[in-house]
## 1
Amino acid sequence: MSARPIPPTSELTEPYWDAARRGELVVQRCERCGQRPFPPRAHCPGCGGPSLSWAPVSGRGTVHSYTVAHRPPHPVFAAQLPLVVAIVELEEGPRMVTNLVDCDPADLEVGMAVEARFEPIDDADMVLPVFTPTRRPGSTGTA
Ligand SMILES: [Zn+2]
């Protein structure tokens, strides 16, 4: 069995991964100008300030762009094809590269509403934030 690639972590990104383990999505916020940079930075890309704190976001956003992979980027992903790689724009502004899960690629469109979901990576103490289309109340979904 091949192991799934594990995202590298660092002192800078550990708060993001710790929050994901709790089922929470967090993004930095500049204490000087309010910008919400992502991925994590040591200094604000807007004003250069060094004071970036971590704050929760709603986990809601929209699809800014996406692509559908029909060949696995790594053998371990072969069972997940077609694999949707997307840029999701959070309602707070930051854009994240992520996977869209539990969706038919034929139903995808730019601008569609999505929400975060948290997927544990097998055999690793890590949880990966991914996104899935927002279900309307009363909808049963496709699972
Ligand atoms: Zn700033």
Note: The chain has one domain: 14-133.
## 2
Amino acid sequence: MNEYNREQSEAIQMVHNHIKGLLLRERTRLKARIARYLRFRKAADEFLGRYFSEVCTYTCYQSQMSACCTREGITTFFADVVINVLMSSDKEIDGLLQVLSLPNPGTKCVYLGKKGCLWSIKPVVCEMFLCEHARKTVFGNDHSVFEEWEKLKLREKRYTWPDRPVLFDELEAYFIKMGYSSSLMYFHNSPGLLRVKALAGKKSK
Ligand code: SF4
């Protein structure tokens, strides 16, 4: 197993085991904590379905021009893992662990299955990625669509940009408090994100 797969696998198992051991009321509390974020993700999905599904279907699946999901080692935040585990069945988690245990030839993302991404709630970096071709095709035709996208990007920052208390930082902090550690905890380890927190006058936890 390569380093990337090992880190991913460890984080998924750690979160899955912890969540499985929680009392129902604590699991419900965690789900309530991510409810607003899930509403944002639904809005992003609807936007992408409305404006990008045609260009992406042609670009990715018919002409195979696109680089979507063909990168090995996509960035996943620890909170992405937590949110996905909370919203996945045991079978779906087993599916992720299974692909991570196989050798990856490195030509595409390890999580890309025959029917698309294997995550229930895919990493936010993937959700908010638009290739240049898709951007030009859709935004070039209608500036109001671009403005709608910019609003979604601002909403994303409310969960992921730690110049204020944000969900992605809080979910890491919750697991750290429980005694866990993972190399995916970028909000507590990445110099760039720590700088954003420090500049915003916050102490890293
Ligand atoms: S959307 Fe899924 S398959 Fe595509 S790069 Fe992201 S994690 Fe991988």
Note: Residues 3-143 form one domain.
